[in-house]
């Protein structure tokens, strides 16, 4: 694939254009290099592009240059990882196969309808654009799934941590209760003994109950 030569500003604009967070998921697209490129070609391309967008070379716009440089650096590191590189190549291949399959289906329908079997993707440039769009779509879908898994894992870790803290706090409360129970046991026993002793003493000193006698009624004498 032939890429146009861009200036430093144009490269920064390309790497930070609207939707770049998804466009830049394809490391080959970020570095503007073919998946078939050798390791030496990859290294040379990285050096050339990183110099173009480096903040030191773009002191009039260092913040954007730094973000662009980080995108280039991330893409290069991904392609240095054999597993990451293979995954990217697989996505690109899947995008190509999808477009080719659609072309075949379209031509089958045209043949059935008795029409010329020509589709717009027969044009090399249109085919390239179709593959590019489909590849970007696949990269975006994979990224969304990755974020969903990451959010789910984070939620699970948070829940596990909360349960761990709750278990630890419960165990702490139980230990403190047991400790308090042991420390106050003697006091409770003494209080109970004192209570029982006081009860017994009160029983011994209890006086017999006295009953009030009703007043005598005087009989009146009749004259």
What attributes does this structure have?
mainly alpha; 7 helices; elongated; 223 residues; 73% helix; DnaJ homolog subfamily C member 8
Proportion in β-strands = under 5%
- Helix content class: over 70%
Summing up helix and strand content along with how strands pair, one would put the structural category as mainly alpha
Biggest sheet: strands, sense, closure? none
The averaged pLDDT comes out at 86
Instruction: Please report the number of helical segments.
Output: 7
Element pattern in H and E: HHHHHHH
Uncertain residue segments = none
Distance between the termini: 152 Å
User: What is the strand tally?
Assistant: 0
Overall form: elongated
Radius of gyration over C-alpha positions, nearest whole angstrom: 44 Å
Main location: nucleus
Keywords: Acetylation, Chaperone, Nucleus, Phosphoprotein
Subcellular location: Nucleus
Protein name: DnaJ homolog subfamily C member 8
Kindly summarize this structure in a few lines.
This protein is mainly α. Helices cover 73% and strands 0% of the residues. α1 crosses α5, α4 runs antiparallel to α5 and α6 crosses α7.
Could you explain the architecture of this structure?
It is found in: Nucleus. It comes from Esox lucius (Northern pike). Suppresses polyglutamine (polyQ) aggregation of ATXN3 in neuronal cells. Keywords: Acetylation, Chaperone, Nucleus, Phosphoprotein. This protein has 223 residues and is mainly alpha-helical. It has 7 helices and no strands. The model has no long low-confidence stretch (mean pLDDT 86).
